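Design a sequence for this backbone.
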């Protein structure tokens, strides 16, 4: 048996290199201030010394340590004189580039062909290298679709330092020490190669803001005479049956290597909810026909309420109303109860279109509202109302008018559903489809299963089952999670998160083999959702607010290929991870769920620790952790405009893990 394992390992290593000395190209780029840089190829001696074609002010040694299917690459640079440098390696594989799919967690999936040409994708180039803080794990993976073989490179470091650069493109000299290198993949004469190095280098473009590619950037770190720098990467090889299992294998490997720990100063559930209610109190607006908690299109510096109200997506006004009602009644807060009831009453009277859809986005300041509707926001609205109706029924309070409204909108849902089980992304009140894409379909699965439970009507369950057929065929089996978020059209976290959560809801209303199948699908999609969440703490420079307040990125999720920032979008997903951990005996899931739940509350704005937010309880949204922004402030800060409506709702749902199973009366593994 040991011999068989050894032979498999040997075969996999042959996928990486035929001869390590010949197939790993090492380069050093040196810069003299005010002059163009010079790149030199390094040759490795038998003793591990790397030497250039001419004398350079660096002594470089390279050591490889093999352990099973991994190779730890250790680089030591000793400066013999003052030097500005950038080191890189090109690790050549034997696989044809056209046969491969690529993976950079939280940023690159397959070939990023769901993304537009204005964002990083194969439309621009088939070779990319990016700075490590763009990625939820500083790793690049190459997967050979034909053979199932894969190879990854993972950076090993303490990631303590970051420095500011005066420019974001071209050749830049860093103002101090950084821990950030780069990672990526490259087409070398038709063969795939891993590329990695230090400090960071982005090519063929850097990505500076939404749909804005900029010229390449290469950073140079200064070393004084006598100074030493240690660099470490780990090459790992394996074999997986599919791209999905490849992503799962790599996530497990990365987790076992990094072992992220819970945030050391967690906030209790009770304290967090009490603090979030400050948002409800301060944001309530009652001067318009629709009453609401103002939670969209506001400034971070003053958090003044606006005339915009949104039912789902970034507003989540109805879910917040339910949260305020439930909390207000359980904690003797009659002012919250009054606000919540007025919001629901106003939506019952003024919140529906002529054909019975929920009015999704209304801007009273400009006397305008959207006439393009989305399955996601409609679903999130129905989801909130069904939670509300179920709660009210348990309090022996009846709402026949609300039930009629929800039945009507659900009938609209059934009319919109395609023969393949999908729901269109966007449409008009007259049912005209404006965006046929099915990426948002899993958002509809949640209210459909809830409606089946509440109304005891199997047609809702049948519709939900049809969505799972589509999801399994088009998203899960193809490992293609896309276009769930409404302000982008690309690979995104929310599509996989919603898909995993949808299967969780289906398991609530299923039994036997069918239920086990949904559990397996939920787990498969969960790995993709998990891949967006940070396992490590990105370093920040002094003067970047997030670094100054000691913000830790572990447990926070990147958003999408287009929107390269972290946020607290979690809702039920931590609960799903805890459930999957029990159902499939996967302790990593519950361990990482604990990291998420401890870390995501760390930026709660409270007196004395406001984190540059204007009011207490208004939880920040666009947390800019890398060299990317929406047009304001950049790494280490927020965008100046934010939407705390959804952040409060997301965290509240995370803090209420019993909700879903209580709603369905589910009794699973203990």
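Sequence:
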């Amino acid at each position: 048996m040991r011999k068989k394992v050894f032979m498999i390992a040997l075969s996999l290593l042959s996928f990486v290199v035929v001869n390590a000395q010949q197939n790993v190209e090492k380069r050093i780029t040196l810069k003299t201030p005010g002059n163009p840089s010079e790149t030199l190829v390094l040759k490795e001696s038998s003793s591990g010394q790397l030497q250039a074609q001419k004398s350079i002010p660096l002594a470089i040694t390279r050591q490889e340590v093999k352990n099973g299917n991994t190779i730890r690459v250790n680089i030591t640079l000793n400066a013999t004189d003052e030097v500005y440098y950038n080191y890189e390696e090109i690790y050549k594989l034997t696989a044809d580039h056209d046969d491969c799919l690529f993976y950079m967690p939280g940023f690159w999936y397959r070939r990023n062909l769901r993304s537009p040409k204005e964002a990083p994708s194969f439309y621009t180039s088939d070779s990319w290298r990016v700075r490590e803080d763009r990625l939820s794990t500083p790793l690049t993976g190459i997967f050979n679709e034909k053979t199932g073989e894969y190879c990854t490179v993972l950076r090993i470091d303490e990631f303590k330092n970051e420095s500011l650069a005066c420019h974001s493109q071209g050749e830049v000299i860093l103002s101090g020490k950084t821990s950030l290198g780069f990672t990526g993949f490259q087409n070398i004469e038709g063969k795939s190669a891993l590329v990695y190095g230090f400090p960071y280098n982005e090519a063929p473009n850097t990505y500076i803001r939404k749909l804005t590619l900029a010229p390449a950037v290469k950073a140079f770190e200064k070393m004084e005479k006598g100074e030493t720098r240690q660099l470490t990467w780990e090459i790992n090889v394996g074999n997986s049956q599919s791209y999905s299992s490849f992503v799962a294998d790599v996530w497990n490997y990365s987790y076992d290597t990094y072992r992220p720990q819970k945030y050391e100063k967690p906030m209790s559930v009770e304290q967090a909810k009490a603090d979030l209610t400050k948002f409800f109190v301060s944001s309530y607006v009652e001067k318009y026909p629709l009453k609401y908690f103002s939670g969209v299109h506001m400034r971070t510096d003053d958090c003044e309420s606006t005339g915009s109200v949104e039912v789902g997506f970034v507003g989540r006004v109805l879910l917040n109303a339910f949260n305020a009602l439930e909390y207000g009644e359980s904690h003797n807060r009659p002012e919250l109860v009054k606000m919540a009831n007025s919001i629901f009453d106003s939506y019952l009277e003024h919140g529906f279109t002529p054909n019975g859809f929920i009015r999704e986005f209304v801007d009273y300041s400009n006397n305008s509202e959207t006439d393009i509707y989305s399955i996601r926001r409609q679903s999130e609205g129905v989801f909130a109302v069904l939670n509300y109706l179920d709660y009210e029924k348990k309090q022996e309070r009846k709402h026949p008018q609300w039930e009629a409204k929800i039945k009507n909108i659900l009938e609209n849902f059934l009319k919109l559903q395609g023969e393949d089980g999908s729901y269109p992304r966007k449409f008009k009140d007259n049912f005209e489809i404006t965006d046929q894409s099915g990426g948002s379909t899993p958002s509809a699965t949640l209210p459909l299963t809830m409606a089946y439970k509440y109304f005891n009507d199997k047609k809702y369950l049948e519709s939900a089952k049809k969505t799972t057929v589509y999801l399994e065929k088009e998203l899960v089996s193809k490992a293609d999670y896309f276009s769930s978020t409404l302000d982008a059209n690309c690979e995104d976290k929310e599509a996989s998160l919603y898909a995993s959560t949808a299967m969780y809801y289906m398991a609530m209303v299923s039994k036997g083999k069918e239920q086990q199948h949904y559990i397996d699908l939920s787990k498969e999609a969960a790995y993709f959702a998990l891949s967006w969440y940070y396992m490590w703490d990105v370093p920040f420079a002094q003067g970047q607010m997030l670094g100054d307040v000691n913000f830790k990125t572990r447990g926070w999720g990147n958003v999408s290929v287009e929107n390269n920032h972290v946020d607290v979008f979690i809702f039920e997903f931590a609960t799903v991870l805890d459930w999957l951990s029990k159902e499939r005996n996967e302790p990593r899931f519950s361990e990482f769920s604990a990291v998420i739940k401890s870390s995501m509350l760390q930026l709660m704005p409270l007196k004395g620790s406001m984190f540059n937010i204007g009011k207490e309880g208004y939880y920040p949204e666009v947390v800019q952790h890398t060299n990317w922004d929406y047009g304001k402030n950049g790494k280490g800060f927020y965008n100046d405009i934010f939407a705390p409506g959804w952040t409060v709702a997301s965290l509240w749902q995370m803090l209420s893990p019993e909700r879903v199973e209580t709603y369905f009366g589910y009794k699973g593994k203990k």
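The radius of gyration is 26 Å.
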